[in-house]
Structure formats: structure tokens, C-alpha cells
């Protein structure tokens, strides 16, 4: 037996599965009906215990093709029921076996509807998956004494640069906790991608002579990576930039806007977003707990291009004069709809326009008479 203890003192009893270890993190919920493998392997969940609102998880098993990273960073899993006999022709192991092999604890038999309502009402909070032998007061004391976990990006970013070769546009992808789906979209477009660590300076990035720079998704508060904000600030105006999720928030901070923590965030694969320029609505995949403050965009060179239809938070930005834009959601989906994969093509078109304009600009010649 295990227990899930929330920071506010709420206790849920359940059966343990996966790893036997205890784990502490921020409790969040994901509303997706499918895609649990991609969610569990999404680096953006680093430091978090994920509650799945769909009642049965693990029914199609785990396969080799749907991972978003090699080493998952999620701190724990909470479900109503986990399937012990998955049925799918691609299934290679059970959810229980996968979590055990990756040392990730899970708890099942939890009333996830009640848990989700608590999170929606009171907001995200600390939680701990613990042995039922511990008293709830002991667990709460452990959470109270535990320091805040603020180095999520450092934990999930690549340590060294590496290349995914291609014959097309040369992209530098700054890894703040990158999902493999982003690489797949660039590979599909034959791009030559150089992935670099989160703390790479703008000088090092520009030395790679990129056609464009991609700022990836990632976990945590964007204000916890001030070095990245400085890097982005120095890239704007020198090279086309595209940001996703955390990259979107870093562009906002670099442009002089502000970000703030949301009550319970957006996590799921059916989030409606409205494009303010075309009035089109897209269904998107999202996973974030911070958002760009709309009012902070005033007196900056950034403007909102898309908003959430659920709560009107900022979902898209663009620079007024430079080829820089970003979205809060995941156009690479994984899991989720592919309504917005065209954004990668838009990024490449920005690059082509910038290259064409650069070539057409008159060159100053040093002529001695």
C-alpha cells in the first residue's frame, strides 16, 4: 500500500506500482485520453507528479516508438486504474514494468476526479507518494522541510552539443528540455540541426552560422534561467527565432514583458487556441504552468497573436519588426493534434525572407582612389 499526501493535508490511499521508492514533487493533472507514454517521457514534467484524469492508463502498453526523450524526468504517476494486461500490436512492456525500470513510483486506486477538483480549486501544490507506514503528519513535515526544486532545466538539458545532419536549413536548437517531436519535424523538412545546452551563449550560437534558432520547451519557471533570457535578448535582430513553450516565455522576458505562475496550468491535448490575425481556432497540445502576462506586453516590441479560448491567456507572440515569434503550446503535438505543424514551415519561410533581404542589401565597398 502507498499513500499520496498533499501539502494541504489531504490523503489518498492506493496501491503502489512501478518503483517502490518514495517521491516528492508538484502535483499536476493531464486531461489527455491517450498519449500517456509521450507525457511520461516529456522532459517538461521534470519535478512533477502527474495525475491522469482518464480513468484507465496503460491499456495499450509501452512501445519503442512513442518516447519523447531517452530518460524520463517525471517524479511520479497517479491513476485511477493501471492496466496490467495491455492489448496492442505495438506493445512491448507494461506501464508497471516501464516505471519500475525507470525508478518512477506510481499509485493507483486514487479518486482522480476528486484530486483534480482539489487542484483546480486550490492550485498546484507539493505532494508526496509515500509508504503507507508513514503518518501523514510525518510526510507533511518532510515536504515542509524540503527545499524548492528550481534546477529542472539544468537536469534535463543536453550536456554537450550534438548534430542531427540534414541538407536543408541550418538550425541551432537550444535544449531547455526538448521533446524529440521537435527534432522529428525538422528532420521531416531535411533541416541540419545542431542541438546545444541551455546555457550556450549567443556568441557561441552565432559562431555556428545558423539560418535560424529554435528555443525548445522545458520545465519550470523561465525566470530560473536568466542566462537564457540574456542569450535570447542578444539573438533578437541578428537571426530568425522560433520559441515553443518555455522558449515562448523566454522570448517574452527577453523582450521586456513578464511571466507569471498559473493556478493549475494547461496540460492536455485538446486545448482550443484562437489566432487573432486570422480568427481561426486550433486544437493544441499543451503542458505549462507559467504564462506571459498580457498587460506586460505594452511598451514592448512584442504583440500577442494567439489566445486561449479557455482562459484568454497568451498563446502566441511575435516581434513587431524582427523575424521572431513563439507559441505557448506544442505544434509538434506528441501527443495531440497536428493542427499547428505548419508553424515549422512558417519559421523556415521567415528564414528564407531574411536570407533574401540580406542578399539584396547593398554591400559597402572599400574603394581607394
From TrEMBL:
Could you say which enzyme class this protein belongs to? ligase
Q: Does the keyword Coiled coil apply?
A: no
| Residue span of region CPSase | 1-169
* Keyword terms: Amino-acid biosynthesis, Arginine biosynthesis, ATP-binding, Glutamine amidotransferase, Ligase, Nucleotide-binding, Pyrimidine biosynthesis
EC number(s) of the enzyme? 6.3.5.5
Record: active site: 245, 330, 332
According to UniProt, the reaction catalysed is: L-glutamine + H2O = L-glutamate + NH4(+); hydrogencarbonate + L-glutamine + 2 ATP + H2O = carbamoyl phosphate + L-glutamate + 2 ADP + phosphate + 2 H(+)
UniProt xrefs under InterPro entries: Anth_synth/Amidotransfase, CarbamoylP_synth_ssu, CarbamoylP_synth_ssu_N, CarbP_synth_ssu_N_sf, Class_I_gatase-like, CPSase_GATase1, GATASE
An example of a Pfam family matching this protein is: CPSase_sm_chain
Source species, domain of life = Bacteria
Any one Gene Ontology molecular-function term assigned to this protein's record:
carbamoyl-phosphate synthase (glutamine-hydrolyzing) activity
Report the transmembrane regions from the record. Answer: none
**Occurrences of domain Carbamoyl-phosphate synthase small subunit N-terminal (ranges):** 1-130
Which protein family is it in?
Answer: Belongs to the CarA family.
Q: Which NCBIfam families match?
A: CPSaseIIsmall, PRK12838.1
Against HAMAP family, the record matches this protein to: CPSase_S_chain (MF_01209)
Its function, per the record, reads: Small subunit of the glutamine-dependent carbamoyl phosphate synthetase (CPSase). CPSase catalyzes the formation of carbamoyl phosphate from the ammonia moiety of glutamine, carbonate, and phosphate donated by ATP, constituting the first step of 2 biosynthetic pathways, one leading to arginine and/or urea and the other to pyrimidine nucleotides. The small subunit (glutamine amidotransferase) binds and cleaves glutamine to supply the large subunit with the substrate ammonia.
* Name this protein carries in UniProt: Carbamoyl phosphate synthase small chain
Q: Which gene encodes it?
A: carA
Amino acid at each position: 500500500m502507498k499513500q499520496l499526501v498533499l501539502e494541504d493535508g489531504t490523503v489518498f490511499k492506493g496501491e503502489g506500482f512501478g518503483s517502490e521508492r518514495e517521491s516528492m514533487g508538484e502535483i499536476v493533472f493531464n486531461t489527455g485520453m491517450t498519449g500517456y507514454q509521450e507525457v511520461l517521457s516529456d522532459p517538461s514534467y521534470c519535478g512533477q507528479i502527474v495525475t491522469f484524469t482518464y480513468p484507465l492508463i496503460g491499456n495499450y502498453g509501452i512501445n519503442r516508438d512513442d518516447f519523447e526523450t531517452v530518460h524520463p524526468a517525471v517524479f511520479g504517476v497517479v491513476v485511477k486504474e493501471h492496466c496490467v494486461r495491455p492489448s496492442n500490436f505495438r506493445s512491448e512492456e507494461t506501464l508497471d514494468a516501464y516505471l519500475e525500470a525507470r525508478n518512477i513510483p506510481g499509485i493507483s486506486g486514487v479518486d482522480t476526479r476528486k484530486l483534480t477538483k482539489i487542484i483546480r480549486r486550490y492550485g498546484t501544490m507539493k505532494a508526496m507518494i509515500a509508504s503507507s507506514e508513514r503518518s501523514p503528519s510525518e510526510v507533511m513535515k518532510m515536504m515542509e522541510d524540503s527545499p524548492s526544486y528550481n534546477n529542472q532545466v539544468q537536469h534535463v538539458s543536453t550536456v554537450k552539443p550534438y548534430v542531427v545532419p540534414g541538407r536543408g536549413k541550418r538550425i541551432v536548437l537550444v535544449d531547455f528540455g526538448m521533446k524529440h517531436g521537435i527534432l522529428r519535424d525538422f528532420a521531416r523538412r531535411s533541416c541540419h540541426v545542431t542541438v546545444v545546452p541551455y546555457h550556450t551563449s549567443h556568441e557561441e550560437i552565432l559562431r555556428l552560422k545558423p539560418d535560424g534558432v529554435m528555443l525548445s520547451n522545458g520545465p519550470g519557471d523561465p525566470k530560473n534561467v536568466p542566462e537564457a533570457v540574456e542569450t535570447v535578448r542578444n539573438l533578437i535582430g541578428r537571426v530568425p527565432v522560433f520559441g515553443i513553450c518555455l522558449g515562448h516565455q523566454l522570448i517574452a522576458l527577453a523582450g521586456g514583458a513578464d511571466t507569471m505562475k498559473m493556478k493549475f496550468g494547461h496540460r492536455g491535448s485538446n486545448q482550443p487556441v484562437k489566432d487573432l490575425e486570422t480568427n481561426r481556432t486550433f486544437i493544441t497540445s499543451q503542458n505549462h504552468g507559467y504564462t506571459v502576462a498580457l498587460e506586460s506586453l505594452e511598451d514592448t516590441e512584442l504583440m500577442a497573436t494567439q489566445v486561449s479560448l479557455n482562459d484568454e491567456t497568451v498563446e502566441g507572440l511575435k516581434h513587431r519588426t524582427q523575424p521572431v515569434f513563439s507559441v505557448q503550446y506544442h505544434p509538434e503535438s506528441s501527443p495531440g493534434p497536428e493542427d499547428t505543424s505548419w508553424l515549422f514551415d512558417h519559421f523556415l519561410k521567415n528564414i528564407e525572407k531574411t536570407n533574401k533581404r540580406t542578399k539584396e542589401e547593398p554591400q559597402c565597398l572599400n574603394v581607394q582612389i
